[in-house]
Amino acid sequence: MNRHVVIVGGGLAGLSAAFFLRRARPELRLTVLEKAPLAGGKIGSSTHGGYTVDWAANGFLPVPETLDLARALGLAGELQEASPVAAKRFLYREGGLRALPSSPPELLTTPLLLPSQKLRAALEPLLARRADGEESVYAFVARRFGRGVAEAFAGPFVLGITAGDAGALSLDALFPRLRALEREHGSVLLGLLRAQRRAKSAAGTPERLTSFRGGGMSRLTERLRQQLGDCVRTGAEVTALRRTATGYEVAWGGERLAADALILAAPAFVAAELLQSVCAEASSLLRSIPYADVTVFGLGYHRVDVPNPLDGFGFLVPRGEGVRVLGVLYSSSIFPDQAPAGRVLLRVIAGGSLDPDFGGLSEAAQLEAVRRDLRVTLGVVAEPEWVERVPWPKGIPQYTLGHQERVRRARAALGRFPGLLLAGNAYDGVGVNDTVRSARDAAQALAETL
Ligand SMILES: Cc1cc2nc3c(=O)[nH]c(=O)nc-3n(C[C@H](O)[C@H](O)[C@H](O)COP(=O)(O)OP(=O)(O)OC[C@H]3O[C@@H](n4cnc5c(N)ncnc54)[C@H](O)[C@@H]3O)c2cc1C
User: Can you say whether residue 133 is alpha, beta or left, with left for phi > 0 and alpha for psi between -120 and 50 degrees?
Assistant: First the structure.
């Protein structure tokens, strides 16, 4: 009898893990159990009248793992890079949109810093003290570049990626590359400059955000669903997990399924519930990974109704500027096929760990807050011709200080349970590429041991 692998959670992690496992070990029996009526989790998009709005991630940097997945799914011909216009990013500061430095040398010319702050940033290789142990993103940037740079950039940048607080989130867990640059080059600035020079001479141009033509990021999960076929069972919210003499058993809605191996690819708080009676230690460690609520809005406008050139990727908003949303993406400037001719699509992200009350507002109040902020920042007074709202309660895991140690201990505790693995964006990186990597690693581990 072929061995049976059950994957709980059919988001990008669960679906990719199933795909990688099937590729490596086609003889294994696979079942993906997904709570929602449609598998794919946060990777999806809505389309309407020529608009395409991504529900969460709008792309990924073209790393080999995700490109390999896309190509293996037959999506090579649909890959599209962000328009060169999107290289420019903005910050909303003191009542206006200011261009963000796009390379380390631009730190020295940006109007976003005072001359003394620029000088301190330039002296990073000489002045920054060494530190032992884990630091928050804010503490790391302040130590290396000075408080001015940390205030100006660390907060909004972290909000833009995780909807979280730069003072609470771990640099080591979120941006291990920055720690590695410090270690290897003695300076983040010098390390970044060298890496940039190497990347330029190797590829000619820096890597650009990548997505898919004709449907945005949903093409990835759509194709995964197609390829996996009926091994994906939807409407299956797993509520119990137990160990058996030969492996594991999961239960949902009156059904039960035996598994020789199990990948938990649902969010960490779900994995924590399921593990409670199997491994109390891992369960309590995973339960302590907090999540932030976020809401995504797609707003479609007639081009003439937006009195801004939208010549960039979009803008981030530091706290304390009188604007509530976290950031606005110029989606149809990034990927022009995401709005019909003569129209533009803006994607607004609101909520996050510093604004936990946003999700509790009525839909009308949320939209009113978003439209007010678009009026203030971009001068948009017209009604949008189309609005899509995608709430993500507990949407983004927050890698607070101690995260890596918690994950290491949880995995060590689970090491006593053969064939029981974790995957998803709660552990080793919050983005699409990290998720694909986590799925590949879990699949590889099972492929080698089952
Ligand atoms: C607003 C937003 C913007 C983002 N932007 C970017 C970006 O620009 N770039 C980037 O790289 N990343 C971005 N991300 C992150 C990216 O979307 C995630 O890394 C990725 O989608 C995580 O996939 P996952 O499979 O780990 O989790 P999920 O997509 O959350 O999948 C988990 C699945 O488990 C299912 N599930 C839950 N409980 C159960 C249960 N009991 N039984 C069965 N199934 C269950 C859920 O329904 C879900 O389908 C963004 C995320 C958000 C929320």
Answer: left
11 lines ligand 1 (CB under 6 A): yes
Residue among 156, 158, 209, 218 nearest 388 (CA) = 218
The pLDDT tens digits for 28-83 are 999 999 999 999 999 999 999 999 999 999 999 999 999 999 999 999 999 999 99
Atom of ligand 1 nearest to the CA of 16: 25
34 in contact with ligand 1, CB cutoff 6 A: yes
Sheet holding 4-8, edge to edge: 232-233, 29-33, 4-8, 261-264, 420-422
CATH tag for 113-203 (out of 3.30.110.70, 1.25.10.10, 1.10.1040.10, 1.10.3110.10): 1.10.3110.10
Q: How far apart are CA 339 and CA 402, in angstroms?
A: 42
Ligand 1, residues 425, 428, 433, 436: which to mutate, most atoms within 8 A of Cβ?
425
Q: How many CB atoms lie within 10 A of CB 417?
A: 17
The fourth-level CATH superfamily of domain 4-43+60-81+218-289+399-449 is FAD/NAD(P)-binding domain (3.50.50.60)
Q: Which amino acid is residue 51, in one-letter code?
A: Y
Q: Please give the number of the atom of ligand 1 that sits closest to the Cα of 273.
A: 41
Do 128 and 187 meet the contact criterion of CB atoms below 8 Å apart? Answer: yes
Question: Among residues 446, 408, 394, which one has the least CA distance to residue 163?
Answer: 394
**Class level of CATH domain 291-397:** alpha beta
Ligand 1 contacts CB of residue 238 (under 6 A): yes
Paired tokens of 260: 């020789």
Whether 294 and 350 have beta carbons less than 8 Å apart is answered as yes
Whole-complex ipTM:
0.99
Cβ-contact 324, 358 below 8 angstroms: yes
